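User: Please fill in residues for this 333-position structure.
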C-alpha cells in the first residue's frame, strides 16, 4: 500500500494542471489563423502584379517528376539517287544524341510575426512582409531564368566547363559539333546592335544546320535586348526608313521582328547592357519546368506566440538545343 500511495503522489507532483479556456483553444492559434488568409491574398496579388517576363522567351512546362530529361538525336542526310530498277533502298540509322537533364531545385524564404507586433501595428507594417516576400520570390525566378543566356558566351575555356551546354560548347558558339556531319553549327556573332550586325544575325539563323548538316530553315521573329538597348532595337525594327540616315531608303527590317525587353538581362542585375539576341520563337529550346509553383503557408509556435509564414517553390530551367537563338555579346565582344 505504501508503494502505491508513493506512486500516486509522484504522478501528482509532476503533472501540470491545464487551465481551461472558454473555447479550449489557445489564443496564439487564433492569432495565426486570423492573419493567414489576408497575408496569403497579399502575397499572391503582389506576385502577379506584373506579368512574368521569362515566359516571353521560354517554353514553360509543368513537371510531376524529380527531374525531366530531353534526348537529342541525329538527322538523316540527303536521299540517294536510285540508279536502276534493281537498286535497293539505302537504310540509315539516326545517331543517338546526348541527354539534357533538368533537375528541379527547391527555394524557400519566410518571415515571423510576434503577437505584440500584431497587437500594436494591426496591418500597418505586417502587410509589407508578404509583399516583400512575393517580390523577392518573383525576382529569384526571373534572375535564374536569364542565367543560361547571360552565361551563354562562357564555356570555351578549360576553367569554364560549368557553363557548357550538352554538346560541350558555350550556348553561343561558332563551333557546335554535329552528330551526322563533319560541318559545325554556328549561332554566335560579334558586334554592337546596329543595322548591319542585325542583318548578319538574321542570316546566321537562316543558315542554321541540323545534325546532318542540312538547313533547318529557321525563321527569326524576335529581337531580345536588355533595357539599355530598348530604344536602339525599336528604331531598328519600327522605323519606316533607314534609321540614322538622311536618305529616303526603306528600312528592310521594319516589321520583321518583335522586340522583347528583358529587365533581368541588364548589367544592373549581373547581366550585360550590350548583349543582344535573335530568336525563332516557335523553334527555340529554352525550357523552364515548374515542379511546384510559389505557395504561401503558415505555422505557429504555441508557447512563444510567434507565427511563421513561408514561401516555397521548385523549378528547373536550361537549354535543350542551341538552335533557335543567335547571340552577340555586343561592344567589346
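Assistant: Residues filled in for all 333 positions:
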Amino acid at each position: 500500500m505504501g508503494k502505491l500511495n508513493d506512486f500516486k503522489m509522484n504522478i501528482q507532483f509532476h503533472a501540470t494542471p491545464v487551465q481551461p479556456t472558454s473555447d479550449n483553444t489557445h489564443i496564439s492559434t487564433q492569432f495565426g489563423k486570423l492573419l493567414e488568409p489576408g497575408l496569403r491574398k497579399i502575397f499572391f496579388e503582389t506576385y502577379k502584379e506584373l506579368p512574368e517576363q521569362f515566359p516571353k522567351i521560354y517554353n514553360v512546362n509543368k513537371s510531376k517528376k524529380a527531374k525531366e530529361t530531353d534526348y537529342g538525336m541525329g538527322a538523316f542526310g540527303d536521299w540517294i539517287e536510285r540508279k536502276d530498277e534493281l537498286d535497293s533502298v539505302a537504310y540509315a540509322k539516326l545517331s543517338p544524341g546526348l541527354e539534357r537533364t533538368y533537375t528541379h531545385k527547391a527555394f524557400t524564404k519566410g518571415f515571423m510575426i510576434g503577437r505584440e507586433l500584431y497587437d500594436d501595428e494591426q496591418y500597418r507594417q505586417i502587410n509589407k512582409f508578404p509583399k516583400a516576400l512575393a517580390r523577392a520570390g518573383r525576382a529569384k525566378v526571373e534572375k535564374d531564368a536569364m542565367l543560361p543566356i547571360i552565361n551563354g558566351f562562357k564555356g570555351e575555356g578549360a576553367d569554364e566547363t560549368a557553363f557548357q551546354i550538352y554538346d560541350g560548347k558555350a550556348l553561343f558558339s561558332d563551333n557546335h559539333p554535329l552528330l551526322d556531319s563533319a560541318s559545325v553549327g554556328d549561332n554566335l556573332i560579334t558586334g554592337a546592335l546596329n543595322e548591319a550586325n542585325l542583318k548578319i544575325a538574321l542570316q546566321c539563323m537562316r543558315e542554321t544546320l541540323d545534325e546532318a548538316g542540312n538547313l533547318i530553315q529557321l525563321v527569326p521573329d524576335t529581337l531580345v535586348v536588355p533595357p539599355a538597348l530598348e530604344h536602339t532595337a525599336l528604331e531598328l525594327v519600327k522605323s519606316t526608313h533607314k534609321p540614322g540616315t538622311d536618305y529616303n531608303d526603306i528600312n528592310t527590317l521594319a516589321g520583321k521582328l518583335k522586340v522583347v525587353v528583358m529587365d533581368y538581362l541588364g548589367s544592373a542585375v549581373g547581366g550585360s547592357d550590350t548583349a543582344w539576341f535573335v530568336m525563332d520563337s516557335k523553334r527555340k529550346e529554352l525550357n523552364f519546368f515548374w515542379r511546384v509553383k510559389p505557395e504561401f503557408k503558415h505555422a505557429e509556435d504555441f508557447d512563444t506566440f510567434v507565427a511563421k509564414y513561408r514561401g516555397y517553390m521548385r523549378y528547373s530551367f536550361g537549354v535543350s538545343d542551341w538552335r533557335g537563338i543567335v547571340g552577340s555579346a555586343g561592344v567589346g565582344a
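For context: The first helix runs from residue 2 to 14.
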